[in-house]
Amino acid sequence: MARFDxxxxxxxxxxxxxxxRLAPPHVELHVKLEAxxxxxxxxxxxxxxxxxxxxxxxxxxxxxxxxEATSGNTGIGLAMVCARxxxxxxxxxxxxxxxxxxxxxxxxxxxxxxxxxAAKGSGMLAxxxxxxxxxxxxxCRQFENEANADAHSLTTAAxxxxxxxxxxxxxxxxxxxxxxxxxxxxxxxxEHSPHTRIAVCEPDNSQVLGSxxxxxxxxxxxxxxxxxxxxxxxxxxxxxxxxxxLTEDARSQALIDTIVPVSGAEALRLARALATQxxxxxxxxxxxxxxxxxxxxxxxxxxxxxxxxxxxxxxxYLSTPLxxxxxxxxxxxxxxxxxxxxxLRFDVTPAAAAAPAPxxxxxxxxxxxxREVPPADAAALGALIxxxxxxxxxxxxxxxxxxWSLRRFFDSAGIAFRSVDLDSVEYQQDDRGGRLRAxxxxxxxxxxxxxxxxxxEFVGGCTDAFDAWKSGRLxxxxxxxxxxxxxxxxxxxxxxxPTWLHPRA
Length: 505
Prior knowledge:
Distance between the termini: 45 Å
CATH class of the largest domain: Alpha Beta
Order of helices and strands: EEHEHEHEHEHEHEHEHHEHHEHEHHEEHH
Number of strands: 14
Shape: elongated
CATH topology of the largest domain: Rossmann fold
Number of domains: 3
Strand content: 5-15%
C-alpha cells in the first residue's frame, strides 16, 4: 500500500498482465491495463503531463480556464487534474461520443460543449481553438503538444522497460489516438530496447494512417483537416479523422514497424472475450488493440513476447454497441434459475404468512390501537397543506426512490414545489416528522410515502401523480392555484422511475 498527498500521485504504474486463455500457446501475450489509472484510462498521463508542462513554461496562469477537444478520456483526465489544481475546464466533444463520458466530466466539474457529429473530430478541434482564441483560455492541443509524448516517455515507457527488463519484449502494440503514447513509448523503446518492434493499429474501414495519403494541415499551427480516407468507426478516441502531428512524427522518425487494420466486429468480440475469459473489463479500443496483437501472434515464432495497450475501462462504453446485447433484466436462463427454488420469485405472489398460534409461554398480544393524532399535529399538517404561497406540497423521505423520481419529474416540468422530508435531520427533532406522518396517515388513510397535495387537494403517491399528469388533472389543479404549466414539451413521467421499477419479463 502507498500513501499520496494528491490523487495525481496515483497516475501511472499500471500493471502488465499475461493472458492465459485468449493467447495462443506458443507466445506470451501481455496487456497493459491503463484502466488502473485513477480516472480509468491512459489519458490521465497526458492530462497531468500537459498541465504541469504548461505551468512550468508559464503558458497556463493560475486560475486560467483550460480548454480541450476530446472524445472523452482526455477530458475526464483533465477534469481530475483541473479539479485538484483549481483550474476551470471546458471540454469540446462531438455529440456522438458515449453519453457516460460527458456525464463523468460534468460530475468532475467540467463544462462540456458539444459539436455536431457530422463535423467529426476535426470539427471539435476547430471549435476548441475558436473558443480559446475568443476567451483567452489555455488550449491543451493534445494532438500536437510534445508534453503529451514526453509524459509517456517518462512514465509509460519507463514502466515497460522495467517490467520486461529480464525478458525482452518482441512487440509493442498500440492504437495511435493522439499519437502521444505511440511517439513517447516508441522512441524510448528504439533507444533502450531496439529489438522491440512497434505495431500500430487502426480501423480496417478507416485506414487513415495506412492509406499513404498525406495529411492536409493548416500552415499556421499544423492542425489537420479531415482526412479523405476517414470513415466512421466504433473505436472512440483510437483513430481520429485526421493524422495527429505526434503520430506523423512517429512515422517520419521511423518508429512504426507495421500498421495492423482491425475490424469493428473483432474489437467487440475480443472486448467481450477479455471480460468473460480473462476477467478484464476493457473498452472497444482495448478489444481492437488485442485483435491486432492476436494477428501478430498467429504468425509469430515460438516464445514471442507481445505487449498490447488496453487504453481504458469498459465502463466508458455502456451506451455503445459494446453493451447493446447485455440486458438489464433476467433472460430465460436466469428466470429458470430463479424458478428452480420457491422463494423470492417475481412470477409468484408470496402467500400471507400465518400468525403463530399463541402458547402458554407466549400469551397473545392484542393489536395496538391506531395512533391518536394530537390537535396540534393535525393543525401543523393543515398549515403546510393549505399554505397558499406554496400550494404544491410533497411529503417525502429524503432518499426514497419514488420521492426522488417525483422530484425529478417536477424539476423537468418546471413545477415549483415544497418537499417536506419527514426523515430529514430538521424533522427528526422532537419527532416532528413522525408526528406529521401520523397526522398525514390519519387524514388520507394512506400509509405510504410520498404523498402529494396541490392547492390543498390530495393527489396521491408517486404513480398517482404521474397518472394525474397523463390525464391532465394535475395541470388543472396547478392552474387553479395559480401555478400553470407553461412548457409544451411532451413529458413521460414514468420515464423518471428508476430502471429497476420498469416492467420485467
